[in-house]
Amino acid sequence: MDIRISKIIAFFLALFSVQCSSVSTNSGNENQNEEENSVWSIPEDKVFIGQGRDGIASIDDPKFEQSGDIDFINDGDLITAIQIGNDIRGYPNVILNYHEIVNDRVNDVPVAVTYCPLTGSGLAWNRVVNGVETTFGVSGFIYKNNLIAYDRETESYWSQMLNGAVAGSMEGESRENYRLIEMTFKAWKDAYPNGKVLSGITGFDLNYTIFPYGDYRTNNNNILFPIEREDDRLERKARTHGIFYSQNLVVFPISAFSDEGTVINSTYSGEDVVVAGMAKDELVVSYSRSLEDGTTLEFSQTGEPLPAIMQDDEGTVWSVFGEALSGPREGEMLKQIPSYNSYWFGWVDFYGTSPRTPVIQIP
Amino acid sequence: MALRQELLLFKFPDAMRYLSKIAALAMFFGLCGFVLQLQAQTCSCAGAPLVSSQSEGTVGKGAFLIGYTFDYKNISDLYNGSNELINNTVQRNTSTSLLELHYGISDRFAVTTTLSYVNKFRETGLHLGSSSQKLRTTGVGDAMLLIKYNLHPQTVFEQYQVIIGAGIKAPLGVSSMRNNGFLLNADMQPGTGAWDGVLWMYSSKTLPGINTELFMSNSFRYSGTNERFSSDDRYRFGNEFVTSAGAGGTLFRDFSYSMAVGFRTAASDTRNSAVMPDTGGSWLTVNPALITPLPLLNSAFVQLSGNIPVYQYVKGTQPTISYTLSASLFIGFGGEKLLGITDF
């Protein structure tokens, strides 16, 4: 090879290798990198980066329509619903699948409705962080296939299923929850025919009729990020309702409830709990049976249509949100207990197989 | 094809006549370098676009061809199936430097090596204005080695050729890049982490009466698997098939052109055999190219080309390529054998 060729090759190689491997980030918010670099309370090697911060856009200016005006949701699709005071709202999961967080104000309470399509879990958080009303966004981080949100006030990172901050100045803090339930859209329409439903006009041009993760909901082998713990007592994607008590967790497979309705009165570590659900509506709710006046109620099925789901031994009929619809305690609310829905594999991966093996209770 | 044709045309460089071209090219490469430094970036797929960026043809015995290509892909469009959506949240681009080395082992056998340097950029949260987050990754990408065999060399009397090739794509690029300790998504990694097999074919037919050459190229990449998250984790990018067909000829004395229709289809990625959502699809593009010899150097050429999507179908919802711009510089050594035309 003559010297001219050697020089030309050297030139190309120099041009080619002018840079070395690197990764860099830049944000308009100065706190961001600082928070990313802070100590995380969860194993950092188990945290993955998905689509980047706000690559999944939260809905920060939600619009609502009446249930009857919604035409892009099938009857069998799920809707996530909240009640604060007399304000009842539904958030179609077909929209939540794409946005994961809706920053809303319900009964004038600042609320972030969070939903993770990979774990099928939904929690409603108060949006006041460090004394300041803020909004939550999708951080782009994933922990155990579950959403890590960030608040736009302190830039702290919040694990949804842990219900607490895992990095940043708020690390160790937990969030106040509101009663958030899931049911089919048909059940919602039956329960609240004039209820407010998050509009499909979100400001983002997305096709909400298509689930964004393919066959993820039904294919038990389709898991996007690693899972550490397995428990084959249920299928990975079995939809379940979990209740926390003391340091333990009891899980109810939603499909195991009867179509007509099943009501379970239980006591977990001294906490009296009622669990009610209907498989055909993919609806399971749980509340405390203990009232502030010291009464412990016994619940049973009710013949009343939705939103009624159970009645107590005093003759009061209670709604899916735990509100007394009629009877001697009309207007009262049952006390919330820490509970929400998730795919089975989510519970197992978060809460382990030992020593906190989730207890499965078949209704 | 156009590149080889240009080699035939280029005989008597006139330095003064090409000064303006040199200035323009210097500006272009300067701009490329500027973009390279400032931006970095991403494609909706991982790694470098090695298969789709392969130059065409081969070289004859003892000939040596070196090429540098700067390839810029703007990935700002958002599609659901074949429907374009308004994308106001994420912007991406990928710029890749490709270094090609072609060497003719014999009159029919040649070897081509392609090295890559990848520069990916992703900006998310565009709808939030100044709070958007920019992520940039750069690094050596994967490399490809092809052995080419000229089944039917072109001659004066039989002015067509058929070249086939086979090779491997080696995972030289990093596929486990982390940001602040957190593993980045596959589409932001410079490399794929997998050994792939590649089949390649090129054919052309010269129509001397109208000073035109028809050509077609096909390539197929069979993807291997990588251990994305752990040693027992199997992530596999979808197989890829790229084809293009078109025609080229002399435009002016110093310029030649080609215009091709390209089609690329990629299967969905899988992880542990489960299909990954929002991966895979098909793209139909128009690929124009303009080629001109470079003065002062014998057998040196510059090619400017682009890919303009005319139809795409993506699985699920994906960001996809808005356009591709490429600039290449080729310098050859080996006289007429550079062309692979050995039998006059």
Please render the helix and strand layout as text.
The complex is a heterodimer of chains A (363) and B (344).
Chain A: H1 3-16, E1 22-27, H2 31-37, E2 47-49, E3 64-66, E4 78-84, E5 87-92, H3 93-99, E6 101-106, E7 109-116, E8 121-126, E9 128-129, E10 132-133, E11 136-143, E12 146-151, E13 157-159, E14 164-167, E15 177-178, E16 180-184, H4 185-191, E17 196-198, E18 239-245, E19 248-253, E20 262-268, E21 271-278, E22 283-288, E23 299-300, E24 308-312, E25 317-319, E26 324-326, E27 339-343, H5 344-351, E28 359-360
Parallel strand pairs in A: 5-17, 19-28
Antiparallel strand pairs in A: 2-11, 3-17, 4-5, 4-16, 6-7, 7-8, 8-15, 9-10, 11-12, 12-13, 13-14, 18-19, 18-27, 20-21, 21-22, 23-24, 24-25, 25-26
Chain B: H1 2-9, H2 19-38, E1 64-74, E2 77-81, E3 83-85, E4 90-104, E5 109-124, E6 133-140, E7 143-152, E8 160-170, E9 178-179, E10 182-183, E11 196-207, E12 212-222, E13 225-226, E14 235-236, E15 240-250, E16 256-266, E17 270-271, E18 274-275, E19 281-293, E20 300-320, E21 323-333
Antiparallel strand pairs in B: 1-4, 1-21, 2-3, 2-20, 4-5, 5-6, 5-7, 7-8, 8-11, 9-10, 11-12, 12-15, 13-14, 14-17, 15-16, 16-19, 17-18, 19-20, 20-21
